[in-house]
Specification:
The structure is a homodimer. With about 450 residues, chain A is α/β, with parallel strands linked by helices. In chain A, about 40% of the residues lie in helices and about 15% in strands. In chain A, strands 1-4-5-15-10-11-14 form a seven-stranded mixed sheet, sandwiched between helices. In chain A, strands 8-7-6-9 form a four-stranded parallel sheet, with helices on both faces. In chain A, helix 5 crosses helix 6 and helix 11 packs across helix 12. The longest helix of chain A is centred in the middle third of the chain and has 20 residues. Chain A is globular. The first copy, chain A, starts with 9 loop residues before the first strand and ends in a 10-residue tail after the last helix. At the A-B interface, helix 3, helix 6, helix 8, helix 15 and helix 17 of A face helix 3, helix 6, helix 8, helix 15 and helix 17 of B.
């Protein structure tokens, strides 16, 4: 045996090594994720029922649970080349600091102006909207990560982009708003007087600072009531996980080049798009019985959909206007405590990941906020990159697993997804630096209150 | 002739192709940059006189104008591998938008948490401080770009880092402050009561919001009055240009791999560290008579050191406590108008670049602020990256040169330095988006007032 090929700090693929198709995990799942239901009829939603809301090609992808590979259109591949491939980084400095025999790798998706992996799906959704000859798209955004990605994608394809931004974020977090405006998006604080639903809410609650549920309602209303517009969404949906499979496909190619077999794959989970994308090809091997991996979803203890939620049909939005999805859920009325920083605040979870978790194909861990920021600080100081709070959930568990290896002496290969950077999350870092950040774990009573909002009908436990 | 090698969107070097030595332009200059003078004696500063302020190895580099190559210590090369090589990007989408036959390339230094090229010198300066057995370093920072880079470098080498941050930035721009704190730096608003000079200023001007000159004075006082500390600086100095040559060396290697010969090389110029680094190996060829390139420094019309300054010995700081440097200067009392966004606000310029410009080896252009942000917006929408205001000066001139090629039909190769990202400059972007950004060009009277502060002694015109 010759010496192992030296692994560089960063493994970059060549352009020609980038994936040409997305991988659709559903094709290899024995138990398919349950279909979306029409909340009125409780019947699976048909293509035609989704057409007023979504682009045709995206509906087809949403409903497709049979084709394992779906070609990435040439125009999207070209755009991917402008900010991808993203590197797989060997965390040499973190390993050294931890004094662990484990080998730690992370796929870093934050080196683009959207600051996260969201751009991978935004550009795909904008492409299909353009292909359909639409004028523009609408969406909602909280802190603005998804809205930023979508505004970049729309600038590239010369599409109008209307973003409804939760009013409190619009006012208190003006920076991502200005990035979106620089890319030509119109950003409207929600609730607004530009929609019927917005006007109604404003009349009833004149001083409201808005909510994501309300912003969704406004974005959907604008999409369905304006000729040439559709609504787009940045996580949870099957189509989004499909687009995000580019993360996992690149990761696998990069690791294969150096003969690296992951033992553990770790990702943070909010709606599930990053995790679903990262694990896709590895889960495919697992589903086909070719290989085995430990796969760990990490969620905040303050919003523990997997670890303490119910597997049931529920609304995806707090406004209860969206279709019903079968998923691990805390109830659509569940809102994380106000001390919760960053994203990962969704009450539910991707249907695909929910089914995989239900079938025992992956694990889930909930971690507390201050422990997450401790990991973020340690990572920043050793690896250089200031991580997003969301990504830092995965860092926490990667460090914990590496420390277990230190005890056992095992040289495991740990791979995690570093979804983004924390440059727009410095209010949370300041709280941590000032030692005023706190943890919050919902009580069983809190959870029961959320579960009470899950719709009851035969078969929905 | 076979088909040209296809040029990818991004050219990344392999680790083993990264430079192992910095290149020192001074060795190849016939007219060496003038030495720093002791303001009391007007004699060239000696090694011993600089020892209380700077680390020994850095003083040696500062004074070395004979060795063309200086080896990059192994520990620095290892750190460089964590965030370098930075890509040379082919601006295919910008070219298409401009419909120019020119080929545009940019070296992108913004993909690290400091957000700019500053880290290249920060890590070197921290290394030499550690090597000398020091406890820590002190510095000043305005908006925080340099302070952030230094805090990252000090975290890596486990050095104490004391940053004096201009009070108005400390209070109004808290985000970079929090990044520095996350990396373990102590950040003190200046003027402060931690120094004699700070106390004096506070007593005289209780409500002052501080200035860079005052922050320098505090940082130097702390370095010289505390055992085991030295002062470090992020631009202007010869040593900093030396470290930044890594930018140009990587750029040249990447272009050479694809047989690309630049016709024009463009960089923004504040203190000159980015520009000096980018052009280093190209200027070397020019100095040795091997090749010729057009080299263009771009500065703000509101702070036009090259295009409207005097070539004379002047103080580097507004407090007039630092050595005298021979450079293009607007006078150490010159302060850009308050509407000036971003960096590039230094009244002087690197002595090396000043000499090269004086000898006709490079050109300089001054551009106005709104035209710079127009270029920034166009770049962001086509190339994806939201550029720093500083970098956008270079983008402006690169676009202008590409548009000239459109008129003439010339297929020139234009290379520019994209020094950083604008994620912490969104107040300026907001002004631009809201159409309230203005231009300002100092009058001749404004300049005369600045020139009046340049010290007069024989030989200093």
């Amino acid at each position: 045996m010759s010496a192992e090929k030296k692994i560089p700090y960063k493994i970059y693929l060549q352009e020609e090594e980038m994936p040409t198709s997305w991988y659709n995990m559903r094709a290899d799942m024995k138990n398919k994720p349950a279909p979306l239901l029409n909340p009125g009829t409780l019947q699976p939603l048909k293509f035609e029922e989704l057409q007023p809301i979504f682009c045709d090609d995206l509906i087809a992808q949403e409903l497709n649970d049979t084709d394992a590979y779906i070609e990435i259109p040439e125009a999207i591949r070209e755009y991917y080349k402008t900010y991808r491939p993203s590197p797989v980084v060997r965390a040499y400095n973190l390993e050294k600091k931890l004094q662990t025999p484990a080998k730690i790798y992370y796929k870093f998706e934050g080196n683009n102006t959207s600051g996260s992996h969201k751009l991978n799906s935004a550009i795909a959704q904008a492409y299909y909207a353009k292909k359909q000859g639409l004028k523009g798209v609408t969406t909602e955004t909280g802190a603005g990560q998804w809205g930023t990605a979508l505004s970049m994608a729309c600038a590239y394809f010369d599409l109008d982009c209307k973003v409804y931004m939760v009013k409190v974020s619009y006012e208190q977090k003006p920076f991502r708003r200005e990035v979106m405006r620089t890319y030509g998006a119109s950003v409207t604080p929600s609730p607004s007087d530009t929609t019927t639903v917005g006007k109604k809410i404003l009349a009833e609650h004149p001083g409201t600072t808005g909510s994501l549920g309300c912003a969704i309602s406004e974005a959907v209303e604008v999409a369905t009531s304006n000729e040439g517009y559709r609504y787009v969404l940045g996580s949870v949906l099957n189509q989004v996980l499909l687009h995000q499979s580019v993360i996992g496909l690149e990761t696998k190619t990069a690791l294969d080049k150096y003969g690296i077999q992951p033992d553990i794959i770790i990702g943070c989970a909010g709606g599930g798009s990053n995790l679903g994308g990262l694990i896709a090809p590895f889960m495919g091997e697992k589903l086909r019985g070719e290989k085995d991996y430990r796969i760990i979803a990490v969620e905040p203890a303050s919003c523990p959909s997997f670890t303490r939620g119910k597997f049931a049909y529920d609304f995806c939005d707090t406004g209860m206007i969206c279709p019903l999805a079968k998923m691990y859920t805390l109830g659509s009325g569940f809102i994380p405590a106000p001390n919760h920083a960053g994203g990962l605040r969704f009450h539910g979870m991707s249907s695909i990941l929910s089914q995989l978790y239900h079938d025992g194909l992956m694990e889930a861990v909930a971690v507390e906020q201050t422990a997450v920021f401790q990991a973020a600080e340690q990572f920043a100081r050793t690896e250089g990159i200031l991580p997003a709070p969301e990504s830092s959930h995965a860092i926490r568990v990667a460090i914990d697993e590496a420390l277990k290896c230190k005890e056992t002496g095992e040289e495991k290969n740990i791979v995690f997804g570093l979804t983004g950077t924390g440059y727009f999350d410095l209010v949370a870092y300041q709280q941590y630096n000032d030692h005023v950040m706190t943890d919050y774990i919902p009580t069983d009573e809190d959870l029961q209150a959320g579960f009470a909002g899950i719709p009851r009908f035969p078969g929905n436990e």
